[in-house]
Design a protein that fits this description.
199 residues; alpha+beta; Alpha-Beta Plaits; 2 domains; four-stranded antiparallel sheet; 7 helices
Length: 199
């Protein structure tokens, strides 16, 4: 599945420091084994350095883990917003922000499976708020955003997932304004449909 492959790639490259620490740990481990076979006293001198590098590796691994939502393994809200702001800054065209808010709890995995076929490798998924899933998608024209959101609503309905989906499109780099517009669209659609979340 594309989301599984994306998660694997993101976790591999999310924190270069973690990889450097892991490589240093392995190198020191090899050096320790060599020194112990040659001279025990010299090998013992490497042990404190090995422990320090190991602790550094653990700290960097924790940073990577905290960048992901523990329930869905998507980017956490903070990590997503940092990357989304950078994508907006680098964008050379319009981007669409989709905000999906399930009507019931524990629907996140169903939502991801429902929308997966419509996602591309450059689309940025993450958690937002308590239950919302947000997707930032590069689009060529502003009208592409509403068109794509209609397709995702159809995918959710076909999968039997009851959720509201708000959409906003922009060509500037103001993430906060984009989030507010998407939330406003989402709430407006809930009001039109007369649907209130029951959780």
């Amino acid at each position: 599945m594309m989301l599984a492959r994306q998660k694997h790639v993101l976790r591999m490259f999310a924190n270069p420091k973690a990889h450097a620490a892991e490589a240093a740990t392995q190198c020191l481990g090899i050096a320790l084994a060599g020194l112990l076979s040659w001279h025990v006293a010299l090998g013992v001198l490497v042990v404190p350095a090995l422990l320090l590098v190991h602790h550094w590796s653990l700290r960097e691994t924790v940073k990577v883990e905290e960048a992901f939502d523990p329930e869905t393994r998507l980017w956490s809200e903070k990590a997503w917003m940092v990357q989304a702001q950078q994508k907006l800054h680098d964008a050379r065209g319009h981007v669409a922000l989709l905000m999906i808010d399930p009507d019931e709890p524990d629907q996140e995995h169903l939502i991801m499976r429902a929308i997966e076929s419509g996602l591309g490798p450059s689309d940025l998924l993450g958690r937002y708020g308590t239950r919302q899933i947000v997707v930032l998608i590069p689009v060529g024209r502003p009208e592409a955003g509403p068109f794509m959101s209609a397709g995702f609503r159809a995918d959710l309905a076909a999968a039997g997932v009851h959720a509201a989906l708000g959409c906003a499109t922009t060509a500037d780099s103001e993430l906060e304004a984009l989030l507010i517009e998407a939330m406003s669209d989402l709430m407006g659609r809930r009001t039109e449909a007369g649907v209130n979340r029951n959780w």
